[in-house]
Amino acid sequence: MANNVSVLFTAEEIARRNRELASELASSMTENLLIVALLRGSFMFAADLIRELSLLDFHPEIDFMTVSSYGNGSKSSGSVKIDKDIKAEVKGRDILIIDDILESGRTLSFSRKLMEERGASSVKIAVLLEKPGKRVIEINADFTGFKVPDQFVVGYGLDHANRYRELPFIGILGSE
Ligand code: IMP
Ligand code: MG
Q1: Ligand 1 in contact with 153 (CB < 6 A)?
Q2: Shortest-distance ligand to the CA of residue 134
Q3: Residue 130: CB within 6 Å of ligand 1?
Q4: How far apart are CA 25 and CA 124, in angstroms?
Q5: 57 C-alpha vs ligand 1 centroid, how far in Å?
Q6: Tell me: the pLDDT tens digits for 101-114?
Q7: pTM of the complete model
């Protein structure tokens, strides 16, 4: 099933990086923190990162939001919409948005703006992956796991048409 995926980062490499990210994050965590994990792509990353934070004795409030750009393939279109909103109150909170990958920047700039419009005190962004040179909107993550080449990656939550999310590693999707 996954023999057309070539490994880019192993499960062990991801686990090591998550531990490092958690200690970077720890210095900017506040009591007031609300983590907003963007579904579905960030579900594994968020789960592992949050567990690392817990080992460092941070216990943030956690909520989930599903946003999507129209379409279901490898290419994302221009508009982002909320499929499922968070329940948590944002006003006055320090927000950490967690997502799988920063590519055009549309998803994260939409999400950040939404939190700002709802009155967040601060908004930071943590992404597992970043594709440099692909930005359509000027936006940077405050915490980044790995930079990846400009190829379609899957695994560890990232999908192609909802497949491959289950892979414990991150790889480049080849042709079938
Ligand atoms: P952006 O809005 O273009 O920055 O892209 C954000 C979303 O596109 C991510 O949350 C992913 O769901 C998806 N995406 C972008 N590049 C990839 C990829 O290489 N593999 C899987 N999903 C991707
Ligand atoms: Mg996604």
Answers
A1: yes
A2: 1
A3: no
A4: 10
A5: 31
A6: 999 999 999 999 99
A7: 0.94
